[in-house]
Design a protein that fits this description.
Layout: E1 5-6, E2 11-16, E3 22-28, H1 38-48, E4 65-69, E5 71-72, E6 75-76, E7 81-86, H2 108-115, H3 131-145, E8 150-158, E9 161-162, H4 183-198, E10 205-212, H5 226-235, E11 240-245, H6 256-259, E12 263-264, E13 271-272, E14 280-281, E15 284-285, E16 290-296, E17 306-309, E18 315-318, H7 333-355
Antiparallel strand pairs: 1-2, 2-3, 3-7, 4-7, 5-6, 8-9, 8-10, 10-16, 11-16, 12-13, 14-15, 17-18
Length: 356
């Protein structure tokens, strides 16, 4: 069992490698009679594709999606939706010098230890190129959720530089290449990332994903918790090393009085006076915005020589060449949005199946 699938009722399976002819995804559990066209998916893929600024990898991939099955005359049929994205700008020769040497921080060694074969072309299956397939699946999931659920993401920290939440403006996210809701921080990040890029190094980031319009009741107790599935979804994204829901680790610094999300009576159900829980209580959505953050490590491909070993176990030194993101967290925003959509669509269908 190779664990290339995710989800329960809404379930997707991705396939393909970074430098193979194509990557893709098969999405199962899609209800019939939903309007779905390639343009609906392409909108989200365009947000993730590489080469859109000097702050991300300069690999040029159009990421054009093709629907191979699961629709007829513009509507889903209820059968598996198969999507394909062709790879058009591979440079496998960039990696020929590391064919026998493991890059520190990458999955090179662990994949070789598990499978006994070394696909050195951009990391093969472990490459973040795979996340384009998740974004495509997320676009289908948004069709299931409908217009009532809004999912948005932003970068809230690069390195040690954090946004000022008092200046949070969603409209600013699309106005800079950093997905930053704080225009002041965006200016600081430009200087920071320019210096990082020119030095051949990399830096980490924190991404926040917010889903609004999620009704109370999605999720299940104990082993089907909405937050545990969200944590697994975000943790499964390449280079993610930490996930938190709501206040997350900061909740450990609060008192019970501070952490409790007090409620008052409202015209359409309870009104919460705060959202430390991130919209999830006991694994079930509360009707508040669902808030998830994840930490993305610095890109492991850097120009500084690093000590390592080769496949024969001998000591070696390596410099990773090629086209790499100085901050891979920037392109993780649409991926995080997609995984949020996939989990929510799955729990929507599971809730409907049990509770009607």
């Amino acid at each position: 069992m190779s664990a290339n699938s995710f989800g329960s009722l809404f379930r997707f399976t991705t396939w393909g490698e970074s430098h193979g002819p194509a990557i893709g995804v098969v999405v199962d559990g899609v209800p019939p009679r939903l309007a779905l066209a390639e343009a609906d998916i392409q909108t989200h893929l365009d947000k993730r594709k590489p080469g859109q600024s000097r702050f991300v990898t300069q690999r040029r991939e159009p990421d054009r999606v093709e629907i191979l099955s699961g629709t007829f005359e513009g509507l889903t049929t209820g059968t598996p939706v198969s999507l394909m994205i062709r790879n058009e700008d591979q440079r496998s020769k960039d990696y020929s010098e590391i064919a026998r040497t493991f890059r520190p921080g990458h999955a090179d060694y662990t994949y070789w230890a598990k499978y006994g074969i070394r696909d050195y072309r951009g990391g093969g299956r472990s490459s973040a190129r795979e996340t384009a397939s998740r974004v495509a699946a997320g676009a289908v999931a948004r069709k299931i959720l409908g217009a009532g659920v809004t999912i948005r993401g932003a970068v809230v920290q690069i390195g040690a530089s954090r946004i000022d939440r008092k200046r949070w403006d969603w409209a600013q996210v699309g106005e800079n290449p950093f997905w930053c809701p704080d225009p002041v921080a965006a200016g600081e990040w430009e200087t920071l990332l320019d210096a990082t890029r020119k030095s051949g190094s990399s830096i980490g980031a924190v991404v926040e994903i917010v889903a609004e319009g999620v009704p109370a009741g999605w999720g299940a107790p104990v082993y089907g918790k909405l937050d545990s599935d969200l944590a697994a979804a975000m943790m499964g994204i390449n280079a993610v090393k930490g996930v938190e829901i709501g206040d997350g680790f900061a909740a450990a610094e609060l008192t019970g009085e501070q952490n409790a999300d007090e409620m008052r009576a409202g015209n359409d159900g309870p009104t919460f006076l705060s959202n430390h829980a991130g919209g999830i209580l006991g694994g079930i959505s509360s009707g508040q915005p669902v808030v998830v953050r994840f930490a993305v490590k610095p890109t492991s491909s850097i120009l500084s020589p690093r000590r390592t070993i080769d496949i024969d176990g001998a000591d070696a030194e390596i410099v990773t060449k090629g086209r790499h993101d100085p901050c891979v967290g920037l392109r993780a925003v649409p991926v995080g949005e997609a995984m949020m959509a996939c989990v929510l669509a799955d729990h929507m269908l599971r809730h409907r199946a049990q509770c009607g």
